[in-house]
Amino acid sequence: MKKQESPVGVKEIARRANVSIGTVDRVLNNRTGVSASTKEKILEIIKELDYQPNVIARRLASKKVLRIASLIPSSSRETGYWEAPLNGIKQAADEIRAFGVVVDHYFFNQNDKKTFTKKAKEILRTDYDGVLLAPMFEQEAQAFVAKCAEKQIPYVLINSDLKDSDRVCYIGPDLHKSGYLAAHLTKYLLPPQSAVLIVNISREMDQHHHLLVKEEGFRAYFKNHHADVNIVKTDIREPDYESIQAELKKLFRKHQFDVVFVSNSRVFTVARYFEEQKISGIKLIGYDFLPENIAYLQKNVIDFLICQKPQEQGYKGITSLYQHLVLQTAIEKEQFMPIDIITAENYQYYRN
Amino acid sequence: MKKQESPVGVKEIARRANVSIGTVDRVLNNRTGVSASTKEKILEIIKELDYQPNVIARRLASKKVLRIASLIPSSSRETGYWEAPLNGIKQAADEIRAFGVVVDHYFFNQNDKKTFTKKAKEILRTDYDGVLLAPMFEQEAQAFVAKCAEKQIPYVLINSDLKDSDRVCYIGPDLHKSGYLAAHLTKYLLPPQSAVLIVNISREMDQHHHLLVKEEGFRAYFKNHHADVNIVKTDIREPDYESIQAELKKLFRKHQFDVVFVSNSRVFTVARYFEEQKISGIKLIGYDFLPENIAYLQKNVIDFLICQKPQEQGYKGITSLYQHLVLQTAIEKEQFMPIDIITAENYQYYRN
DNA sequence: GTTAAATTCGTGTACGTACACGGAGTTTAA
DNA sequence: TTAAACTCCGTGTACGTACACGAATTTAAC
């Protein structure tokens, strides 16, 4: 409940402590060369006045630029998912460029762990002030953030989290809940006593794990609601169309499904199969706002897409780092993205 | 494709033009005291160098604070809707306070035009640098923005737009599309040949107009899809529970509905009626993330809520004004909010 | 042609902080 | 005893822009 109408600066602090602004500056940037007693006194005054450093003047005076490295998957032909986070990162970078922050981009191949470690090493060599990371490969990512911690480099995680890491924050989905919601939607579309197919498509084990969490969420819903559904599931480890087609063909011969739930953005591949086989009447639910998926949404082959603001993940990742580094404000440690439902009617208004 | 690695400043411009930085400064802030010829020369050099003023230094040097006024409805007992935009406004205000911007809040009563005009007059008297406005009362708002234009005060509109106004931008929903989506959802929930009730609840004519646009969108969907549904609608002009109860009772005696669509946030009132009358099996769709609505969502009385990020509307309104005033960047003239679907499963992750 | 007024422009200071430099005082080493 | 080293701190300049003040030049008026 203090009046803080008059913004106090270093010189007011200096006046009250009977020292020069240089000394105050030294304790603020905790540099050496101040006796313990005066340092203490100054800190006390700073606290008492609730001194807020003028970030404007600070950035103006400091000629050194802050450097942030982002390390995320490259968007491949297989999935353009990472285009969106990258755009968010770029947008944030544009906005804070004027404040003396530059962002360098590093990309790795989702199907090749070596590219990850290589880029990680490069980043460590360059001594960045902050790192934005998509920790797709758990082991390797753990090793990387350990190195960052050692070098006192703050880092933010997006898209998936790492256990026990002291990141600045995590920004991304709650996978379990996301599958749970998908199940809820499914139930709206279903007659009682119907059959559901869960399709998990991914090559790398690390990624596959995410899908299994979603699947758990999906199953949990039906369990909690004592719904009588017959759930069949398949794990497809080769994401090319031929493999998927073969697998689906086999399954569709054996079963009669009412709903198909694809646990990631590859839903368009299944949609393609539906289209080619002229399958209709089966509801299709999947993930992510990709052009391919949207096309099938428009054609009513896909019924619902679940999306978790990939672009905002990138954007928030950078701005969180910026706030941590420049403004030094406290950051929410876990920022779960909203779970958005996209249909043929609202996709035009969706912003990632 | 220019190299713009080396940020040029006024003094580089001054050097090239053979004048002092003072003169350059004069043409930058187009003040008087510069001959036409030198002014032209300087402008040319500025363009050639693609000079970007240093916003940091600019705000530091300029001791004057920018003042923004926000004029929105107070959140009443009847509806807490405006709480969210207000929070967004406050959040944005916090973030840009450090940059020398202050935001003053003005509120009016949605049921009383006089309170609007009174506050508007106050704002005009105080000479603000920018205005954020929710133009609920069309005529009065038009008069207000005309005055703003006259005084060269830029303004941003949120929640609803004004025809032919030269606002900095409009931020809010596309009402028609929003009703259209509601209809789409409805169709998922419906057996063929079913009956739908549309409920519009609002006292003031101006507000009621918004609802009618949503209703149009709702009907348009069924028309476009040649769906065979029986639509009944009612306009309730007294938002208290008793009036609504009476009207619903009358309607439910006459008809058998499968879906009820309430065109604004008052859906909780209808939900209360459902609960009290132990009506179940009828799907209920409405608007806005209010505590009352969420409560009924949890109890599965309300099935879907449509929401258009009211908090973000406030937030973006302020930051747009900030970008216009301080950074002088170009602003997207029409920023339609995404149309979000909220269910019992994802509401916890919804952020306004 | 002289003076006043108007026009056009340069200089200096300020904004709040960062940081280099160096000075005064104290301790250590020779 | 004196030089050197170290501790602690004050001063000055710089960051890029805004703006007040006043100087130089041109124009107007008689």
TrEMBL record, chains A, B:
Keywords: DNA-binding, Transcription, Transcription regulation. Pfam families: LacI, Peripla_BP_4. One of its GO terms (molecular function) is transcription cis-regulatory region binding. Residues 8-62 form the HTH lacI-type domain. The keyword Hydrolase does not apply. InterPro entries: HTH_LacI, Lambda_DNA-bd_dom_sf, Peripla_BP_I, SBP_2_dom. This is LacI family DNA-binding transcriptional regulator.
